[in-house]
Automatic annotation (TrEMBL):
One of its GO terms (biological process) is actin filament bundle assembly. InterPro entries: AH/BAR_dom_sf (IPR027267), I-BAR_dom (IPR013606), IRSp53/IRTKS/Pinkbar (IPR027681). Gene3D superfamilies: Arfaptin homology (AH) domain/BAR domain. Residues 257-276 are annotated as: Disordered. SUPFAM superfamilies: BAR/IMD domain-like. This is IMD domain-containing protein. Residues 1-191 form the IMD domain. It comes from the Eukaryota. GO terms for cellular component: cytosol; nucleoplasm.
Length: 276
């Protein structure tokens, strides 16, 4: 059964999957920021801008009308004050009576001036309050958006701060296999070395016999092809026990050769006679 090596890079894959999950969380938080920027900031600002434009125009018109009325009242009191002063200078005998009317007109003038100043101060206070409310509303919307940014940064800090060191440690061990895989390879190599030693020790006495058996089996299979060559090599290598003796002819070679010459001459004569 073949060993399985699927989990030799399990730590790297786990770290990469954790990084992917962190990226997903951060991306989701960024999408929340984008939604909050539109829903919590842009839409309320646009809505309030339209309302505030109408409110400001109405308040301005109201202020101008009231300011005009109070200014006119103050202007009348000031005009009466001037008129009684002129009369007082012309009628020197009735100076005491003119002075009482003048004091009354002066009191009316002071009251109208106080009313006008109070109205202006109250109107300015209302305008500053409304302006502060507008700026406060914009600040509130930005604070709501800043909370989403804070959540984004907290997510990044909590996710990266806890796992970044672990990921770096895994990245530093990329040149080495995990201990479990190393132990598995060491065990396999140890088994292979033991098997090889057993084969060497057990098979060494019978090594020559096994070689001879294998050679003989190969010769049996190729006997028809290599038998003649093997026989010739054996003849050259191994000397024969009985030396070969030269055969002697029992016939007289000289006489046999003379008879052969005579027979050939007779055959030639017969061929010539046939041609004639």
């Amino acid at each position: 059964m073949r060993p399985r090596y699927e989990h030799y890079n399990e730590t790297e894959r786990s770290a990469l999957m954790q990084i992917v999950e962190v990226y997903k969380e951060i991306q989701a938080q960024e999408m929340n920021i984008l939604k909050a920027f539109y829903v919590d900031l842009l839409v309320p600002l646009e809505t309030n801008l339209e309302k505030d434009t109408k409110v400001v125009q109405s308040e301005q018109k109201k202020f101008l009308q009231q300011h005009k009325a109070r200014s006119e009242t103050y202007s009348k009191a000031a005009a009466n004050m001037k008129k009684y002063r002129k009369k007082g200078t012309k009628n020197g005998a009735k100076a005491g009576l003119a002075t009482d009317k003048e004091l009354k007109n002066m009191q009316i003038l002071e009251e109208e001036k106080t009313k006008l100043d109070r109205f202006c101060e109250q109107s300015l206070k209302n305008a500053m309050t409304q302006e502060r409310r507008r700026y406060g509303f914009v600040l509130e919307r930005h604070c709501s958006l800043a909370k989403h940014y804070l959540a984004l940064h907290n997510t990044g800090v909590s996710s990266y701060g806890k796992r970044l060191d672990e990921w770096q440690d895994v990245a530093r061990t990329r040149e080495y296999l995990p201990d479990a895989v190393e132990n598995m390879f060491a065990m396999k190599l140890r088994q292979l070395s033991i098997w090889q030693d057993d084969e060497n020790f057990a098979g060494e006495p019978h090594l020559l016999d096994d070689d001879r058996i294998s050679i003989s089996s190969q010769l049996r299979k190729t006997k028809s092809m290599d038998a003649s060559c093997l026989d010739l090599r054996s003849i050259n290598d191994v000397g024969s026990v009985k030396p070969l003796s030269r055969a002697k002819s029992e016939f007289n070679l000289n006489s046999s050769t003379n008879s052969l010459v005579q027979d050939r001459s007779q055959e030639k004569d017969i061929r010539k006679s046939r041609k004639l």
